[in-house]
Design brief:
- The complex is a heterodimer.
- Chain A starts with a helix and ends with a helix.
- Helix content of chain A is about 45%, strand content about 25%.
- Chain A is an alpha+beta fold.
- In chain A, strands 1, 2, 3, 4, 5 and 6 form a six-stranded antiparallel beta sheet that branches.
- In chain A, strand 1 and strand 2 form a beta hairpin.
- By secondary structure, chain B is α+β, with helices and mostly antiparallel strands.
- Chain B has seven helices and seven strands; from the N terminus they run βααβββααββαβαα.
- In chain B, strands 1, 2, 3, 4, 5, 6 and 7 form a seven-stranded antiparallel beta sheet that branches.
- The chains are: A alpha+beta, B alpha+beta.
- At the A-B interface, helix 1, strand 6, helix 3 and helix 4 of A face strand 1, helix 6 and helix 7 of B.
Chain lengths: ~180, ~210
């Protein structure tokens, strides 16, 4: 597998993942669990970028805003675009994370964890704070990985075809009602 | 922005090797020291890069701050770059060209050759670089030894490439990016890998686009 082809597959697969993620977050009200049974919630919010076409015909639409209904992005999906980047909110119990996920490389940008107070009390081990922060960062990674694993298993199974039909109907419904 | 900041941007990698020799982990600090950052403040070099301690970009000995932290090895990649602003460079090249042309005319020549012009540009670049301080940038690295995952606090392709190369060189280990292609490969049975390699994008909205 040459790297150029791998990179093209990566982008295509990443876009399918994020488009599917938006659909699933609405269909399942954001309820999800890791393979270890750790329940969490996830929501697509604030910022979605959709893209379609290739080369000079490539078009991108970015929707953002704290209360945005993401209407333009929904219309974009209806016109055949796919989600290229998305901002997710992840919740577990009282804790909350937010992170932007990029389709082409699955990089996690502007990842915000529940707050860790980095100021040290007297005599406190500074490593404890770092370990707490790393634990919280890895929790967000675990949540994204759980979503990714579910997508990959579905994507390369016979059930994908039925899922694509459902997703198409969702796009059709949301695209039509978005304006 | 590093891992301890309020907001972090990161790229993840997986070790290609299934097992890591315990000696590699035990001698991590020694290996990092071998490729530690080298200061270029008092030179005219354009850039320098190497490892520094996780929480202190001036610490290249890894003695004040341990690299081991529970299940993790933590350190950072430092990259210093000298940048001469384009307008400054252009002005000094114009001045130097003017002087060289005047000198050439005094010798009866009418113009500067291509090689002479190139030599002037290189000389000016070197002289100016020596007058600008390098700008330091630090990218923290966290290696989860138990998971065989490595996180780099950067999403810039050039930094990622540099890190990738430095890591392999330092530890004699190989990383693969956890991008959609490799992250799918890691999950799929061997029987399904051909489906991934033959991947054709799904059309969600038949009839459009």
């Amino acid at each position: 597998m040459d790297l150029e082809r791998a990179s093209r597959i990566a982008t295509g697969l990443g876009q399918e993942f994020l488009t599917w993620l938006w659909f699933v977050s609405e269909r399942e009200n954001g309820l999800f669990a890791t393979p270890d049974g750790e329940a969490f919630r996830f929501f697509v919010e604030q910022r979605v970028r959709v893209t379609g076409g290739e080369g000079e015909g490539r078009e991108t639409a970015v929707c953002s805003g704290p209360m945005a209904s993401l209407a333009e992005a929904r219309t974009g999906l209806a016109a055949g675009k796919k989600v290229d980047s998305v901002r997710l909110r992840l919740e577990k119990d009282e804790a909350e994370w937010s992170v932007s996920v990029d389709a082409a490389r699955l990089t996690l940008t502007s990842l915000k964890t529940p707050k860790v107070d980095m100021r040290l009390e007297e005599g406190e081990d500074p490593d404890a704070r770092i370990l707490e922060k790393l634990f919280l960062l890895e929790q967000a990674m675990d949540f994204v990985d759980a979503l990714w694993a579910r997508f990959v298993m579905l994507r390369f199974s016979p059930a994908w075809e039925a899922e694509v039909q459902d997703l198409g109907r969702w796009i059709d419904r949301r695209g039509r009602f978005s304006d | 922005m590093g891992f301890l900041a309020g907001s972090t941007s990161l790229t993840r990698f997986r070790l290609v090797e299934d097992t890591v020799e315990p000696t590699i982990l035990a001698e991590a600090a020694e290996r990092l020291r071998r490729y530690a950052f080298r200061d270029i403040d008092n030179t005219a070099e354009e850039r320098s890069f190497g490892w520094v301690a996780f929480g202190n970009m001036l610490d290249t000995s890894f003695e004040n701050e341990p690299v081991d932290l529970g299940d993790y090895l933590v350190f950072a990649l430092r990259l210093d770059t000298r940048r001469v602003p384009a307008a400054v460079f252009k002005k000094h090249v114009t001045v130097a060209m003017g002087q060289a042309l005047a000198a050439a005319k005094a010798e009866g020549k009418k113009f500067l050759s291509k090689d002479e012009k190139l030599e002037i540009r290189e000389r000016v670049a070197l002289a100016l670089r020596a007058r600008f301080l390098p700008i330091p940038a630090v990218f923290q690295v966290v290696w989860n030894v138990r998971r065989h995952h490595v996180y780099l606090a950067s999403v810039h392709p050039k930094v990622i490439d540099l890190f990738h190369e430095m890591f392999s060189q330092t530890f004699d280990l190989h990383l693969e990016p956890m991008d959609p292609y490799f992250a799918a490969r890691a999950l799929l049975d061997a029987s399904k890998l051909s489906l991934l390699d033959d991947h054709a994008p799904t059309i969600f909205t038949p009839g459009v686009a």
